[in-house]
Every structure is written in C-alpha cells, then in structure tokens.
C-alpha cells in the first residue's frame, strides 16, 4: 500500500491510471433550465452516471489497486450508509477480494441490495454510520482483515479524479460546489482546484440537519452535532479529522442547506436534467440556489455526487 | 452530403469519426436487480446519459457533419415529438446552423424548452408528428432550407454507433432489444449486429397503442394504425418506408407492449437502476419482461434510448 501524508494533486493524477482501467470519465453538461433557475452558467458533473451510481466507486477502485496482494486476500471491512459500501463491494469484486460491510439498521434498501448483488457480505448493525463503523472496525481487527476508513487517503485520491475531469473539460470554471458527507469528494476537489488555479472558488455544502462537518470546519476543531437528515449520503455525526484538516487548508466556504431545500432541488434536477439525484446528490444544487446572488456571472459547476434515491423517498418527495 | 443507399456497417464505422468529436461512448451496465427481475443476464445501454438525454443526438451530429456548407447555411427544418428535435437543435448549435423545428401542439414541455434553450426556432403545428412533418416539409421547400427526415440515412448511421459500442463492450451479447419510433435506432442495431455476428438476435418493440411500425413490418407493407400512446418517443402514426425495408431484411422479431407495461417498466428502471426513462426508454425493459421465458439464459442488452420524461408524467406514473 502506498504511503500518504495529505494527498497532493500528483497523487490524484497517479490515481487516474487505476481509475480509468475500470471507469470512463463522466459527462459535464450545461442545462439551460438550471442556468435560468440559478441565474448563471451552471454545469452538472454527472457522478451519478458511474457504475453503482455514485462518485465513490472511483475511490474504491484506487484503494483496491493500491493494496498489496496480502491486504486484499485478508478481506476488506468497512461501514457505510450505502454508496461507500457499494464502491468497496464493486471494487472488491473486480479485484476478487472479499468485502464485509456494516450498514446502519434502517439503511436504504436499494443500496443494500446492490451491495449484496455485487457479492458483498452485508451486516446490519447500529443506529447510524458511526455505530456501524465502530463495530466493524473491531471485527476487522479480530479477523485480521483490512479496515477501510471512508476517508482513507487513497479513496480521496481516487475520487479526486472527477475534479481533474472538471478542470480539463471546463478550464475557466470559477466556482465548484460539492456536497460533504465524510469529505473525501470535497477534499479531492479542493486539492485539484487550488493546485491548478487558486482562484477557483470551492464551496462545500451539507444538510443543516447533519451539520457536524460544517460546524467543525467553522470552529477549527471537532464539533459533534445532532444528525437527522433524510439524505444518508451526507448523514455524518462524528467529524473526520483528515478531511477536516484538508478542508481547513483549502476550502473557501462551507454552507448548510435545509432538508426541504434539498428535496426541492431533487425535484428541480428531475425537471431540468431528467436525472435522479439522491439527497446528497442534490445538495450542491440546493446550495447554488441559496447562493444565487453570490454566484451571479460566475461559471459554476455543481457536483451531482450520486443518484441512489429509493423509489419510496422519490414518491414522497414528488407527492 | 454523402450519398447513401441503405446504410452498411462501414457507413456506421465512418460515422464514429464525426460522433466522437462531440460525444463520448455511453455506459453499458449490468444491474443485479434487473437480472433477477427478467431472470437472465441483463445489461442496460445508457443512451439517456448523452447530452439532450437521448440516442438521437448521435444522428444529429453525423448529419450536420455530412452536410455541405451551403446546405448548413440554408438552415435546417424538421418535425419532432421531442428527442429528434433536440438532437437537431444540439447539432445545429455546434455547427452554427439555424434550426426550425415543428412540434405537435401538445408536446412534452421539457423537450420544447430544451430545444429553445439550444437556440432552435420551435413552432407548434398539428395534432401529431405526421401533421407537423407535412407542414414543416412544405415550409422548408418554400424557404429553400434543408428538410431533415427523422429516418435520414445519415441519422441511422450516427445512431448506429451505439450498437458498435454494445458489440465492442459485450462481444458475447445474444439478444438486443430496441424500441422503435421511426426506426432509426432499430436499423442501426440490426445493421451492426447482423454484420458483426448474424447469430445476435435483434428484437424491436413498440407501444401497442401506436403499432403502425410493428403491423407494417409483420404485413410486409405499410399499415396505418391508430395512435394513442403516452410515450411520444414511439408515437408513430404513418410508417417510414426506408426503415421498414431495413428492418424487414434484418430484424428477428418485433413485439408490442402495452402502455401500462411501459409505465411499470419506468418504475422498475427507477427502482433498480436509479435512472429516469421516458416511455420509449422503458419499452425495451417492458418487452424483456414480457419475453422472460424466451430470454432465459440469453445475455440480453436493453436499450434505454432516452430519459426525457416530464415531471408531471412521472408523478402520475409513481402515484
């Protein structure tokens, strides 16, 4: 396994070799309906078009590619609310490794089915991600397996490849808005954007019903907050130290959007792009709408990080 | 403009040069949920991931690339229920040509807005596609513009590039199911599949509430039928002669699926792939479910031709 301190843009460039063995770049599209709505030139980065429907799979591939044969054959253990787990399950299958994934008890059933469909051993444990994580990390230690933290540096480097695609496709991008769960995506974007052109503004966004990462970033120290969002992709209760450190170094701003604003953004994304966004996937659009005045005349990219919304939630949101 | 008799696989291979200047190949993904549902190995060809959300854009690009400068600067005229018009509007913008598009009076508002957003001059005329087509074709003649038939050979060659992608990605594909509106997609698939490996079975599908293309194919002569489907992408009332000729030569079967089966397939596509399919885009899945027994143990590709379903229709279908 490659040794990392905080990842650099060179590490992300290196990750491309692994990522593009299995995946192809995702589209970056401009939709006139969204431009009218936000009042500026808005582009959508379609991470929902990847296998497993979310950006995380880039990280899973890079991590598995960087593990040693011994680490891979010891089996992987991780916890997830869904997309990270699907990513590890997908990558483990490609590399013929075993994956054990702990998920919170009331997890998105479609995401759980998808993990199982990819051959992972899925175990329900605990009320939320952090509870599942503690439990499975102990289990990995007992069984001598490899525990994957959702903010492992090689995951950050893998997911950072989408940020390289953004600046290559749209070199004059001025603002990138990215949702934050554990922060790997936001870190990838920060590292790339600030290395390529420090004037690119990077804004992170999270649900106001799960503000721990935002509060910790603003306070400059870990703050635990209540967590009660429908958007499991950004449902973090305990902040992650390494992604906080990177975000403190690079991030321009970090905003909160209400769950109701996220639901409205899901409807608008469907209406204007015909793409299904899960809660986390609509957070960047919700933030863009909230920051409308500030984004005026700025060429803006919003990251549609994932599309794995359950039909049940969709029905409720459209009703 | 290149002269065509019926297009060959070589013509489609040549179209790749034009198409990939503007577009990238679309993914072909296997979803375990759909495999369980259909009872065989099912792959989805994601033409909904293209700009404008439908396969047609490949044809528009190829057509504009093949026109002479004089033809382009005379302006393009066409009729459309939506996706063909978006394709021509998109390609016209890329090639800096003017596009006038006649649409039936009660057209999908999102598709109309998208055409206008791409800079096309959209005119509402007539109750259905065929009425709009007659009118705009006369107008093109008056104004000396270039009239684009939705089954123009260079459109068939452009859209056929997705069929090349299918056989390249999944060389052991055994059955491909493709929806039929005017038939350009089905022709592209037939020509490619039968040239590459005649044992690949190609099955076309259309709505039972708009069966003219199926009835004409089965009868071996033009049959006009009533047309009353919600799925505007397959809402053909008058059959197209050139695509009928190609389909008669190559197609293995042509099935009809009821509008209610199409709506159910839209729900299943959302549930298992988290992709929004418009009616036409769900026709192939509806057909696969209907042909379940026959597809058993056959590696099957279904073409998700487009995703431009209006939010209003989606809400009704989910309710």
What is this entry, summarized?
2 copies of one chain form a homodimer. Chain A has 16 helices and 10 strands.
Verbal overview:
The structure is a homodimer of 319-residue chains. The first copy, chain A, contains 16 helices and 10 strands. The first copy, chain A, has helices at residues 9-22, 32-38, 56-66, 69-73, 83-94, 109-117, 129-143, 153-159, 161-169, 184-196, 212-219, 241-250, 259-273, 279-290, 292-295, 311-318, and strands spanning 28-30, 42-46, 76-79, 99-103, 121-124, 146-147, 175-179, 201-207, 253-257, 300-304. In chain A, the strands form 2 sheets. In chain A, strands 1-2-10-7-8-9 form a 6-stranded mixed β-sheet, sandwiched between helices. Chain A folds into 2 domains: 9-55 and 154-318, Rossmann fold (3-Layer(aba) Sandwich), CATH 3.40.50; 57-150, 3-Layer(aba) Sandwich (Rossmann fold). In chain A, α1 (9-22) crosses α8 (153-159) and α8 crosses α10. Chain A is α/β, with parallel strands linked by helices and 319 residues long. The longest helix of chain A has 15 residues, at 129-143. In chain A, α5 (83-94) links the parallel β3 (76-79) and β4 (99-103).
């Amino acid at each position: 396994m490659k040794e990392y301190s905080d990842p650099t843009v060179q590490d992300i460039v290196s990750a491309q070799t692994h990522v593009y063995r299995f995946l192809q770049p995702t589209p970056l599209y401009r939709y006139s309906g969204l431009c009218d709505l936000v009042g500026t030139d808005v582009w959508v980065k379609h991470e929902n078009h990847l296998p497993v429907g979310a950006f995380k799979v880039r990280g899973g591939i890079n991590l598995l590619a960087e593990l040693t044969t011994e680490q891979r054959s010891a089996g992987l253990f991780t916890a997830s609310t869904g997309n990270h787990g699907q990513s590890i399950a997908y990558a483990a299958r490609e590399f013929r490794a075993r994956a054990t994934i702990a998920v919170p008890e009331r997890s998105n059933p479609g995401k759980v089915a998808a993990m199982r469909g990819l051959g992972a051993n899925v175990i329900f444990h605990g009320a939320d991600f952090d509870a599942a994580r503690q439990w499975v990390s102990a289990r990995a230690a007992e069984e001598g397996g490899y525990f994957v933290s959702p903010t492992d540096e090689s995951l950050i480097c893998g997911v950072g490849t989408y940020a390289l695609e953004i600046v290559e496709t749209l070199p004059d991008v001025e603002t990138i808005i990215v949702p934050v769960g554990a922060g790997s995506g936001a870190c990838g974007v920060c590292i790339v954007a600030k290395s390529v052109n420090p004037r690119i503004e990077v804004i992170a966004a999270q649900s106001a019903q799960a503000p721990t990462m935002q509060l910790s970033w603003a306070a400059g120290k870990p703050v635990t907050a209540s967590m009660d969002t429908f958007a499991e992709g950004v449902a973090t209760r305990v902040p992650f130290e390494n992604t906080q450190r990177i975000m403190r170094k690079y991030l321009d701003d970090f905003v909160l959007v209400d769950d109701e604003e996220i639901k409205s953004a899901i409807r608008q994304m469907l209406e204007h792009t015909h793409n299904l966004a899960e809660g986390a996937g609509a957070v960047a659009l919700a933030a863009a709408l909230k920051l409308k005045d500030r984004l005026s005349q700025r060429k803006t990219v919003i990251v549609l990080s994932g599309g794995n919304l359950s039909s049940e939630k969709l029905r409720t949101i459209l009703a």
